[in-house]
From TrEMBL:
The record marks 180 as: Important for catalytic activity. Pfam families: 3HCDH (PF00725), 3HCDH_N (PF02737). This is 3-hydroxyacyl-CoA dehydrogenase. It comes from Extremus antarcticus. InterPro entries: 3-OHacyl-CoA_DH (IPR022694), 3-OHacyl-CoA_DH_CS (IPR006180), 3-OHacyl-CoA_DH_NAD-bd (IPR006176), 3HC_DH_C (IPR006108), 6-PGluconate_DH-like_C_sf (IPR008927), 6PGD_dom2 (IPR013328), NAD(P)-bd_dom_sf (IPR036291). Transmembrane segments: none annotated.
Length: 296
């Protein structure tokens, strides 16, 4: 036997140098700025969940931006449904639900984000779209605002670089960070916080503190393809799809053995549908291009 020590006991000397840099850069809470107003871009399944949870737990007003009025209407209808369900189950009082709902404002114009302390972007996983949004946010948001992305896999350093044409100008890129919430946001406790090369310590501290005010449990990871959650999760989903494709098992058997055998709430194929196959494919392409491995 090579070692009998559990993996969780491995010391930090086994961590590669770039990852050690990120792992050691956990800031102090004293560096965190207060977030009194939040912006969220994208009213889809993640953006709506982030906005609702921020309003409910951190009790901040939230401006939700989406370029589709239909998405905004659908998002707010979903928020109403979730709140009604929680009132029925006595998880929230009617007055707290009303207050939560009243803090949510919607708009189709990003220009309405001129007064936020932090913005969290949750538009589809398309590199050029995220770059476009961040270059606009650098112009629209106040000069202190934290610019966070909910990307599942795209480099934070790359997204941050889109905030200025001058690579020496870190005034906006130092405020870019990832707050990678998990789906469904109101339920999942974990948030993966990823810094880009330009991210300042106070930006990281503010992102961590704000996620904690949303009653989430932040974990930090390095800015490498897929970060932690999806670097581990996506090969698992991919292998399940390959098992289906090659006839190792049918859909029911694949999902049932993983659900009942490893105590996860749903099997990998159901999970892939839940995340969205377009999102899964985008993440897998980032992993494949970034890590060059056919299994990813
Ligand atoms: N789905 C998941 O399980 C999951 C989990 C973690 C992270 N993410 C990440 O979160 C992000 C959003 O994913 P989602 O599943 O919520 O997507 P979604 O498709 O449900 O929602 C995206 C929303 O963005 C809006 N949008 C598109 N272009 C826009 C623009 N230019 N300006 C404003 N709004 C625009 C769309 O109308 C839509 O409402 C992606 O980066 C994804 O990788 C997804």
């Amino acid at each position: 036997m090579y070692t009998t020590r559990p993996l969780t006991a491995l010391s930090r000397r086994y961590i590669c140098a770039p990852c050690r840099h990120f792992a050691s850069s956990t800031p102090t809470l004293a560096q965190a700025a207060s977030v009194k107003k939040l912006g969220v871009i994208g009213a889809g399944q993640m953006g709506l969940g982030i906005a609702l949870t921020a309003s409910r737990m951190a009790k901040v007003p939230v401006t939700i931006v989406d370029n589709s009025q239909a998405s905004l209407d659908k998002g707010l209808a979903f928020a109403d449904k979730l709140l009604s369900k929680d009132i029925q189950k006595e998880r929230i009082s009617q007055s707290d639900a009303d207050a939560t709902r009243s803090r949510l404002k919607t708009t189709t114009s990003m220009d309405d984000l001129g007064d936020v302390d932090m913005v969290i972007e949750a538009v589809p996983e398309i590199v050029d779209l995220k770059k476009l949004i961040f270059s606009s946010l650098a112009q629209i948001c106040p000069s202190h605002a934290i610019l966070a992305t909910n990307t599942s896999s795209i480099s934070i350093t790359l997204i941050a670089a889109a905030t200025s044409k001058d690579p020496k100008d870190l005034s906006a890129s130092s405020r870019v960070v990832s707050t990678h919430f998990m789906n469904p946001v109101p339920i999942q406790k974990g948030v993966e916080i990823i810094s880009g090369l330009q991210t300042s310590a106070s930006t990281l501290a503010t992102a961590i503190a704000f996620c904690e005010s949303m009653e989430k449990i932040p974990s930090t990871s390095a800015d490498t393809p897929g970060f932690l959650a999806n670097r581990i999760l996506m090969p698992y989903i991919n292998e399940a799809i390959i098992c289906l494709e090659t006839g190792v098992g049918d859909e029911k058997s694949i999902d049932e053995i993983m659900k009942n055998g490893t105590n996860v709430p749903m099997g990998p194929l159901t999970l892939a549908d839940f995340i969205g196959l377009d999102t899964c494919l985008s993440i897998m392409e980032v992993l494949h291009k970034g890590l060059g491995d056919s299994k990813r």
